[in-house]
Every structure is written in structure tokens, then in C-alpha cells.
């Protein structure tokens, strides 16, 4: 029996999306096979060449609403940067246009410890996003049964208790799969329902905010606008959040944002803005940039600057992580310091890596990074040692520079800052 297929979403005033292709059903082309984690292949975002700065467009009613929302958020939470504040503001507004989006960006609100403002930010989001759905102790089955053509906004606090340890992550693999699949439209889960066990496909597409201590799983972080919270320093103060006093004003603002965005659904669905990043980062940030373009004023400039800077920061953080591209970046620096020699012996390469006082390699394991550990790290990138000829004419076990070129290009791109023009007021 074929699983049931939702009809195209065609309510008045809504963006219409084509019916998803069903493999083997007449009249439909086969759907491209997704990546193993349910989404597009992982890629490294790279900024586009800088363009000349153009004057800001005239502000609109929408830009005034975004200004007001930004001020409301800043009352209760100190974000790590102005760019992060702009991103949160645009993400909240984007939740009110979910039927227009191809991708549903996640908002990953993470911090290194308790009392960094993560839960307080979620409090403010709960009162301003479209149809908030708190997922505390909520099963994945209940979540995807709650997602419709006008999806709710999922809010997950204490996400570290779901994914924090390997055992927790294994137990909640279905939740991770739901969050990964729901980043892109037309990614369904199939379950049998009723006494007759009829297969039924449930939608997963919905925007989601997740707050927790430490990073979330890589596949979720890669689909997220990442907000890295910090504890307030001495002298920094915020307004306490009190539901009875503060909720009415936030709800009034939420309703005005919804009223502004509702007539713009079709226009938003048709927009293809110029983005300062590529690949999955562009997919994730596109709804925020579209909202900024609809609002006009300074917001298109602020959105693109926030996108470029925050994506670059995450790329650098990934490079610094020893288990990812950090080893590639550090080896590239060694080859550059050695005047781009053709080959380095394993011993010489390890010596230079361990000499870097800012790197993790001198303290890797009991005696520092060794040949076996180096080989294990590089094997993930299909780079293996071999017999190499050195500059002095001798042959030893080592690595040739040309074996790293493809991995450097893919995982350690040179990232250039986007020229956003001279500093201006934020309106």
C-alpha cells in the first residue's frame, strides 16, 4: 500500500509548494537520494568577493518593527555581539513566514556553562515567535504529529540533556533525525497509524531553537544560526523578565509582526537574495536575509554583515577543533613556514606541530601527538603517509604536500571578510 501524500498547500494567501516526488509513482521523477543524515552534503561556507557598498534603502514599517523587536530582546538578554542580536531579531521575524521558506533555520543557543542567559533568551522567543511549541519531555512522534503546513516553532531548552553524552545521543537519535530532516522542506517520516497499520507520512519541516550547555551534534550545528552566549560581566545588567508584566507587550509586538509578514508570503517565497556565503550556510541564513530585504532600511546590510561574520566565526571554531579540520589547518601552516617544501618526514611534521604553544598537539595523549595518532586523524580525510624524498635527498616515512591540497581546499578555505562599507548607525 502506498503511503498517503499531503496535498499541495494552497490556502488563500499562502505560498504554494509542489507536491513532493514519490519514488515509483507514475508522473513523478525519482527524488535525489539525501545524505546519510537526511540533509544536503556537509560543506564549508566561503564568503563571496566583496561588493561595493550601496546606500541603505528607505526604512519601512517592517524595519520599525524589527528595530522594536531588537530593543525588546536586548532589554532582557545580553547577546555576545550586535551581529548575534541582529540574527536573533531576524530569526524571530522569519518564524512568521515559515510557509514561504525552502529551509527552516535552527537557532542554536549554546554556552560553556550555566547562567549564560540561554533559558532567558528562550523565554523571550516563546512570547514572540510564531506558534511556540515547547518540547520538554515531548516525544518525536508527538512533535511530527503537530507539524502542519503552517508549522509551529519548536523550542528545546536544556538540549544538552538530550544530546550531551553518547548514551543520551543514542537514546534520542530519532529526535536528532527529526531536527536534521526538518531543516529542509519535503523531508518526511513514515509511520503506521490506526488499527489497520496504514503507512502515513508526517511532515518534519519547522523552525526550531535549541538551547544547551556545550555544542549540539555537528549535524544540527551545521543547520543552525549559532548564538554563543556568555555570562554577564561586572557592570552588565538586564531587565528581569516577568511574565505578568512583560508578556502583553511582547505578544502585541508578535501580533504586529505577524500582521506585517502575512501579506508578504508569496513575495518572500519568490525572493532569491544575493548571499555573502554559500552552500548550507546560505540555505540556513536565506530566510533571515529575505526578512531583512523586505524590511529595507539598514537591515539588508546588517543581515549580510551578521551572516558573513557569524558563519566565518563558526568556520574558524570548527578549524580549531582537533577532531575536525584543526589538524589540516595546522599542517598547512607548517608547510607554509617551511617554504612550501614538497615533502616532510613524519618526525619533522610532528616536531613542528608539537612546537606550536597554542595548539593541542604537545599535550595530545600522554607524550604528545605521535605517528599513529596523526595517521588516524588524517585517515578521515583520505590522507596517508608513505615513503617520501626529502630536500637532502634521503627517503623517509612522511607526507607529501600535494596529498593535502584537495583537503585544504575543501575544509580550510581562505575566508575573506565581506566589505560592508563604512560604519553607520543601526537605525
UniProtKB/TrEMBL annotation:
Identify the residues that the record assigns to the DUF3631 domain, covering every copy.
228-411
Give the InterPro entries listed for this entry: DUF3631
Q: Where is the composition biased (Low complexity)?
A: 23-41
Query: Origin, by domain of life?
Result: Bacteria
**Pfam families referenced in this protein's UniProt entry, alphabetically:** DUF3631
Location of region: Disordered: 21-43
The entry's protein name is DUF3631 domain-containing protein
Traced from the root, the source organism's taxonomic lineage reads: Bacteria, Bacillati, Actinomycetota, Actinomycetes, Kitasatosporales
